[in-house]
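User: We ran a pulldown and think these components assemble together. Before we commit to crystallization trials, I'd like a predicted model of the whole complex to look at. Sequences follow.
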Amino acid sequence: MGTGMSKDADGGSHGREEGEENLDHAGGQLYVSLKMENFKLKGELIPHVYGSVPLVGSWDSSKALSMERESASMWELSFVVPPNHETLDFKFLLKPKDSNAPCVVEEGPNRQLTGGTLQGESRLAVFKNGDEILEYRAFIKADRVSPFDLAASWRAYQENLQPSTVRGIPDVSINSTPMAGAESGSSVSLELDLEHYVVPAPSTSANSALAYAANNAENPRFSYVDGPGNASFSYKDSGVSADRPATIKEMEVVIPDPSKIYSGSGMVESKSVGTFSPLQKQDGHRGLFVDRGVGSPRLVKSPSSSTFSFDLKLDTHTKNSMPAAAGAVAAAAVADQMLGPKEDRHLAIVLIRFGTSFYKSFESLDSGIYIVLVGLPVRGKTFTAAKLTRYLRWLGHDTKHFNVGKYRRLKHGANQSADFFRADNPEGMEARNEVAALAMDDMIAWMQEGGQVGIFDATNSNRKRRNMLMKMAEGKCKIIFLETLCNDERIIERNIRLKIQQSPDYAEQPDFEAGLQDFKSRLAYYEKVYEPVEEGSYIKMIDMASGHGGQIQVSKTFSFLFFPLI
Ligand SMILES: Nc1ncnc2c1ncn2[C@@H]1O[C@H](COP(=O)(O)OP(=O)(O)OP(=O)(O)O)[C@@H](O)[C@H]1O
Ligand SMILES: O=P(O)(O)OC[C@H]1O[C@](O)(CO)[C@@H](O)[C@@H]1O
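Assistant: Here's a predicted model for the assembly, 566 residues in total across the polymer chains.
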């Protein structure tokens, strides 16, 4: 695993380790860890970092990232920057804890990381606070990280997260209330706790109590904010059997016309697989929570390749045809496969890919990105949107999830019958397009206030709707369609049942079978007119949850996002 240069204020520096791999081609990114130490301070002044990239506030002190107290005298912050950042300029600053007094920026020139190496002499961080001079020792460390490490770190972060310590965004809730009964059987009342929720995943037992992920999406700005969407709802669980685990061999990455997209060589070989041993886990490796709302990335690496060996069984054809980006994706898949449940695993592959491509596209796009979900109902769009939001926030990108279903429920009530969703029902169509436009307006407004990634979650199931969204985004932001497709009837049936149990749409429907019939009619109306994405920039996730393999397709027009990977 490659290691960058590390320096501290005493001038100690550690050169790159032998055997370093150049991970740029594998989507290697720069993990930056900053620390400040001062034994005398009492904590009225909170150290922050700001700098030249959006991740650290683009020199806007109000967007500076807060450092967290690691010990009585040490403050810490870590984040990951793209490898294409030739130079990252930054400075430390101090913000008064409980007042609006101006912040104090450190003296001296900007600190500069170029290609992962700290430029210039290391120095103390010196602040002039009125007549007072404050001095901190500064520790700056940069490491190149592979998708392996990122996937493993993400997994470790999620597994060790303590919900009670989450600030800023509601992230996960681990407490589940065991309950009896399945399917249409017993139900428990679930007070919707906006601070804690779980992204619904197929349950492997009848014991998980999950809140509906869409409820945690961005609240509409229009006047229905305090409406029915914030109410609690009833929840029933189902018993669903676990699918068999997938293997990396089953994962297929399809990139149309790769010659036009990538010129990179073959599979990325990784000698070090980032993971953690059970022992390390017990150390209490925890995410640290910073002001951007989620834990800042903590690297989890295997001490050596011998600790964990994994046989990457890709057939010759796949190996030879796999471009560098796909290699990175596969690498992430390997790391993730070892660590998580099936759906998370598959999704992580896409996430790593997103993470990589976003990093590489952000700076050139400047204005941020809209990810527009596309897919029939119960294809995992909300699940994917919620996971993507969390992952991108963890990486440091200001990300928000806009769920159109939530807007629809607030404006038109939760208990619309299937007829509402008929394509030949003009009032229904108009109402749906109207709430979609409201959500899009909110997303655009949020983006203009400095947001970086907006995730727009609706079926967006026909070209006309997608054209409307593209028109609204024109000149403002690039849209990437993310289509989730599922051909496995068994999964669809399971998802439908979960939907009747979990969705606020059916909270008032006491008759499970009636709810089921209504939702199936809704689905049939959608299926009749569904138009898969063929336009614009898109990624298709096909059968990712089947357990029998999956496909990721990336459209040609998306290629520019991957350009730096080539
Ligand atoms: N890629 C996938 N394919 C199929 N099902 C998935 C996928 N990812 C997650 N799921 C499962 O699908 C179920 C429904 O998910 P979700 O509510 O996200 O669907 P949706 O597409 O947003 O539905 P709707 O359009 O009705 O709101 C969840 O239980 C989730 O575990
Ligand atoms: O208007 P569209 O694009 O169908 O999408 C919004 C709808 O998608 C759904 O998630 C489909 O079930 C509804 O909750 C929501 O009203």
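The mean pLDDT is 65. That may be worth checking against your pulldown data before setting up trials.

User: Thanks, that helps.
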